[in-house]
Please model this.
Amino acid sequence: MELADDEKAMLDGAEGPAVAAAMDLLVRYGEALGAERLCETRNVAGTMTQPSPVKARLVREGGWNKAFSVINLDSDDEFELPHMRVPTCQLQQGFGEDSVGIAPYPRSMVELQSGAEAFYGERGVNILATCTPYQVGNLPARDEHCAWMESSAVVYCNSVLGARTNCEGTASTGAASLTGKIPYWGNHLPENRYGTHLVEAAVPVAGFLDWGMFGYFVGEVVQENRPVVTGELRQPDQTDLKHFGASTASSGGVEIYHIPGITPEAPTLDAAFGGRAAPEAIGYGSRERRAVYETLNNQGESTGVDFVLLGCPHASLDQIARAARALDGRKLNAGTELWLMTPRALRSVADRNGYTEIIRRAGGRVLTDSCPAMSKSAPEGTRVFATDSAKQAHYLPAILGIEAWFGTLEECVDAAVTGTWRGELR
Model:
């Protein structure tokens, strides 16, 4: 790779050993990818405070500097961690203090995470603790080069915001935070952002449920390619686009999609394909819609529901309000728990608006920072859960060995109140 003068200086140790190790990692990473150079980034979203048994051992052995060196710089040496060179945020992590006594999650991991937040906060990491950093202030500009982790965040960053990032890892984001550099490859290159597949909806796609199911279908048929979607699409809002992208990334590996007239790089179908002729459309009709719904619901046999999970990706304020309205004046079934996951910053607004109290009075919980899939933790004894998230319906049965039902928020709330799944495709 060709390095600029400032990059050579960092590699040679001009800014200290930690930065030199970070630059060495990026050079090796970029060369393995075939990148010809690095590019500037001023927006990093990674995982530094996420607790784990390995991190606990490293902290015991050598402290937080040791843990960062091994996990975030892929180095056996121990470096004194300087202040982050560029704006850096922590994505979702483990459950925090608000889960104690609710989630069966080790108190030791909560305490380890608290120590990590203090350490990294002093060094310039914004502890947003969410898979949706764009909902709580991290909004990169169009065409800005970023270094983000987390599949649903990456696809939103590329597609909805029009910024540029690949799906990075713990080490590459750690190195980017200290150097302000990332290999210039993949989604950073304009020519790699044009559509490769055309998917056309012949049935209306409107609302959270249908955008999620359509996304699941799109991801399954294009896998890691770049879909352009058209057809009977009703105007999506931020929440619909969040759910659609998360679903494409779960069933496939989509990192960027285009909706002509909606997403910033696709004012027209022609622009979405970079002036090339659009390929033959892949159809999504009633049969395909039904098949997706059945796929997402083929992991449930018992209609008895003991856990309802809302907020994946983390719920927006509008979603919290909808859940509060659906629960207002009602009580959860004695054998069923309901957790709604959201960023801590939005939880504060929900508290002020009274939404949290309505959910609490019904017997539900509004939790922050993590999710059952990330923390591998659900209520004790959970056998069957219901969710309005295609992503969680896809992942959580495998992670926790439980059955799943997928449907609308209102159907999930009904299951929480009655203890019984009664959802159906309409």
